[in-house]
């Protein structure tokens, strides 16, 4: 189950095509009904002013068709690759990175086919830092070549077996060759965070000197923390004058935070993939990066990327690799904009900025209130009563809410149950012989429900008595407020 986009497009992942969402209701807050805007852009989390920061000026290298193809479940046929490339281009990513044309004959043909699409995004291919590979890459029609070689002792000793002098010479040869063909070249060190810092910086300085367009830092094993990222990128920023790209794996959950810190430290490009797919548990997700960056600079993100297309791209990729969008996915996850507790619902109704740092409308998404639960509050039920075009006084809504809560204590209830209680409760207001609130209850449920109602009545009576006692004792206002808030 997943919130639907606002454009009426068919929904996936369990949401009905008509937008119905079991147990939840879409709604506009009073605040928005009055024509006031979500105030998320006026938040205290503006980027820290720093002339090296690129938080308000970053580029995306979208690697679903390279890193994403390394995801366990991924298999992209040519048609799917083309669909994904076009969708990413329409979304507005700056570069699209493709699997090495040396991986297989079909990979080479697909790379050529995508280059011929005439997309706005730059098309890059990702190859080993080796002349054999770059010679093939430059013939495919790409705008640029991303080369990579392992620099950590783990990879030097147990993977390719080459020393730093060999790596430096290979890098320079490859860079000069790609540049001689008039193409863009990026040099990246694999496993940068477990590489020797002095080795790494002297390698980057050498490739910068021969005119590489971009250097890349890769947290290949997902070990880096935001602070380590900041330190390394800021140090590198002082050593090279070219662009800096960063690539973060998510093994220890820092991929988005690391990307943000890299930009704060002066990185220019971030690698992403749709839903984060890649080796193991993947890399910085495109949607997650958007969520992070829109909080920092809404105008830049909204101005540059067609955010309403995010959900469709995620659905396309999720279908292709046969996975579901996780319930807690940034922006598009089933519960990303769903509010449940009565206190939250009440505040959201008044002004959504109270519990939303991101405006779902920026992504063409809707917020939901989960009102069919024991945590619901009378404000949420009142909003539902209005949606059902019924009229009740606040006192009646409060009583009806108590009934819903009592029933939700007996068994999980769906939106239909809550609606049915509301409607029957409303009908009973004008009847002498009341109808049962829910016709389909078992004898046992009825008993429990009655018991719950008695308990609730007891609580109400107790509160009334306490209120009465407070009044009589003339309790000071501050103390009284505290009692009510804690109730
Ligand atoms: C890999 C390579 C890579 C490369 C990143 C880059 C990594 O698949 O192991 O080119 O910057 O994570 O190191 O994806
Ligand atoms: Cu990677």
UniProtKB/TrEMBL annotation:
InterPro entries: 2-IPM_HCS-like (IPR050073), AIPM/Hcit_synth_CS (IPR002034), Aldolase_TIM (IPR013785), DRE_TIM_HCS_fun_bact (IPR048253), Homocitrate_synth (IPR011872), LeuA/HCS_post-cat (IPR054691), PYR_CT (IPR000891). Its cofactor is Mg(2+); Mn(2+). Residues 443-474 have a biased composition (Basic and acidic residues). It holds the Pfam family HMGL-like. Residues 1-22, 432-487 are annotated as: Disordered. Its EC number is 2.3.3.14. It catalyses: acetyl-CoA + 2-oxoglutarate + H2O = (2R)-homocitrate + CoA + H(+). GO terms for biological process: lysine biosynthetic process via aminoadipic acid. It comes from the Eukaryota. GO terms for molecular function: homocitrate synthase activity; metal ion binding. One of its GO terms (cellular component) is mitochondrion. Residues 58-311 form the Pyruvate carboxyltransferase domain. Pathway: Amino-acid biosynthesis; L-lysine biosynthesis via AAA pathway; L-alpha-aminoadipate from 2-oxoglutarate: step 1/5. Gene3D superfamilies: 1.10.238.260, Aldolase class I. NCBIfam families: LysS_fung_arch (TIGR02146). Belongs to the alpha-IPM synthase/homocitrate synthase family. Homocitrate synthase LYS20/LYS21 subfamily. This is homocitrate synthase.
